[in-house]
Amino acid sequence: MKLNIAVLPGDGIGPEVIAQAVKALKVIAMEFDHIFTFDYGLVGASAIIKTGNPLPQETINLCKKADAVLFGAIGDTKFDEDPDAKIRPEQGLLGIRKELGLFTNIRPIIAYEDLLNKSSLKVKQIKDTNILIYRELTSGIYFGARYISEDGNTASDVCKYERFEIERIAHQAFKAALSRKRKLTLVDKANVLESSRLWRRIVKEIANQYPNVKVNYMYIDNAAMELIINPRQFDVILTENMFGDILSEEASVIVGSIGLLASASIGNKYAMFEPIHGAYTKAANKGIANPIASILSAAMLLDHFGLYEEAALVREGVDKSLKLHITTPDLNTKYDNISTTKVGDFIEDFIQNPDETNLN
Amino acid sequence: MKLNIAVLPGDGIGPEVIAQAVKALKVIAMEFDHIFTFDYGLVGASAIIKTGNPLPQETINLCKKADAVLFGAIGDTKFDEDPDAKIRPEQGLLGIRKELGLFTNIRPIIAYEDLLNKSSLKVKQIKDTNILIYRELTSGIYFGARYISEDGNTASDVCKYERFEIERIAHQAFKAALSRKRKLTLVDKANVLESSRLWRRIVKEIANQYPNVKVNYMYIDNAAMELIINPRQFDVILTENMFGDILSEEASVIVGSIGLLASASIGNKYAMFEPIHGAYTKAANKGIANPIASILSAAMLLDHFGLYEEAALVREGVDKSLKLHITTPDLNTKYDNISTTKVGDFIEDFIQNPDETNLN
Ligand SMILES: CC(C)[C@H](C(=O)O)[C@@H](O)C(=O)O
Ligand SMILES: CC(C)[C@H](C(=O)O)[C@@H](O)C(=O)O
Prior knowledge:
By secondary structure, the first copy, chain A, is an alpha/beta fold. Chain A has two domains: 1-102 and 267-360, Isopropylmalate Dehydrogenase (3-Layer(aba) Sandwich); 104-259, Isopropylmalate Dehydrogenase (3-Layer(aba) Sandwich). Helix content of chain A is 42%, strand content 20%. Chain A has 13 helices and twelve strands. Chain A has helices at 14-32, 45-51, 57-65, 77-80, 89-99, 123-126, 163-178, 194-207, 220-229, 241-255, 292-304, 308-323, 340-352; strands at 2-10, 35-40, 68-73, 104-110, 130-136, 146-148, 154-162, 183-188, 214-219, 236-239, 262-266, 271-275. In chain A, strands 2-1-3-12-11-4-5-10-8-9 form a ten-stranded mixed β-sheet, with helices on both faces. The longest helix of chain A is centred in the N-terminal third of the chain and has 19 residues, at 14-32. The first copy, chain A, is globular and about 55 Å long. At the A-B interface, strand 6, strand 7, helix 8, helix 9 and helix 10 of A face strand 6, strand 7, helix 8, helix 9 and helix 10 of B. Strand 7 of chain A pairs antiparallel with strand 7 (154-162) of chain B, so a sheet runs across the interface. Bound molecules: 3-isopropylmalic acid (2 copies). One 3-isopropylmalic acid (IPM) sits between chains A (75, 90, 93, 245, 276, 278) and B (191-192, 221).
């Protein structure tokens, strides 16, 4: 298969972790006789520094020409601390989600057997947890009208949803549930928000078309608790943009580190793959950033193009690295100083020689 | 002291748990020679059934005449399942918060020594956690304009904040921090929301007036994770309405049961005290509802009127009940069938005879 991949490393630890994902994809291409090409573009704070724009038109063009986008991370503490900044790295990420129409964000939450005791939660609590979060990604309060009064004393944001925006992701989530445990939980705040009531109404309608999927409805406050006290109750979680942001980052505690969480953002024409962690400016260029979320995002990319065997091999490599403690310091209690690159190298070696790779 | 308390038991388990809080207050009045009077009002689904209105004018009048309000819970699964209901129990609760101007909601999160192993989290994770959440309660997306299009296919909610709404609660939160560990965390989503940037800007200004308080800023998605992986980093958390709703219910996992979380809602003229749990219709009238959140809310009421010794005694009663496993089934792994009333009776006895109360 020929795949033209746009790579946007972004800020902070983005470039380091994305380099490992690219390495994994390159060795997959070699082993399976695919042709993957990689074209790099600017986004986020690094794009602001070089071009004044967090999402240069050139980057958009690059992504639209590509078969898929591999995204690192954006953000910079400098901007976080300045609420008055008009140009912000996040505009790069939000802009690209909107420009490419990536309305469905899929975030798998899997409690890895080898990491169970790394979690803040008790092992018995999280064992066998396997959740797929479907987060709406191009609407809601992220993209509604914003307002700041001239005197700077009043500000507002609008959370708006339209029927078609809910329907298209809901169908995808229901279909995903069909191939899993056939359970779907809609998370909303329908006891307060009109937009949540729209979600609930539409999901109820659509549920009739999927009689084999058991649907339940949960308020976001309650879901934030239930995710911790009984995560195994969930199969597919469907939710709007902001609640999905909160729940998915919270869910990282089940997996043991946010450095493990991959995601796919899918639209009708384009697809982007990115770790859910941020740019962690403080950890940049120290070789301590966990590349696994990026590498698993590359595996989601492979799955997206039907390269299931390839994706499975990448995941096996990740599993093996976890089993053998070839992991960055966020996860490692056995070895010191296993660097970002070293983890990437190990997984690259594994892909070449799945049966021989061991600690060396 | 003479206190006239408006009691709004509400729906589901509300009446059962509030009865225990009233019992505790009555025996406190007796032991300390106070005169507490209790007047009951309707709110929520039970008010809808009897009057068609989730917040009858009579109830508002009752609360405005009173020195404080003791609130149970509202909600009914019947309404939860019907996104088309125009009249909803929640309007009773939101209406009363607005009518009484209860803009500051205070929710203490304390990891009780005797309950550490009840939590889904590892003991070492939560030990010594003591957080005070300051949640803005009368503005934000809870009270912004709502819209639903005539064809029912578009819906929106507005999250709006004004300077004075942020300032008044921020000052209270900073003052609280001064009497604690002098740390304040503002939780927002300033990388996306204009209203969050307003919060961040104003809190930064106000921080200058409290040089002894260490302030930090955290995005809500990150906070939802940090609350679980490192809860001890927090002292006072200040946040807007919706984020406070989510974080405080999530934080119940630290305490071990949402049945333990009390809250105070304070305005310039009025004050209301309520457990943060909901109506749990399914658990109603079974004698299994945990009354401790309500009893601790009564303790917060006593504190509010400067009755510190009285409040402390109520809390000691609660501690003792936890130590001796006189708790409802949500917490109890030792005894079966300790009912809501039995817990209330135990704490009542303890208040009368702090030195003699034991398991009987
Ligand atoms: C960086 C930020 C704008 C982004 C979001 O809120 O969507 C991030 O938290 C995420 O989850 O991808
Ligand atoms: C019942 C509901 C409207 C309420 C809220 O969201 O504020 C509740 O969850 C709470 O936290 O007091």
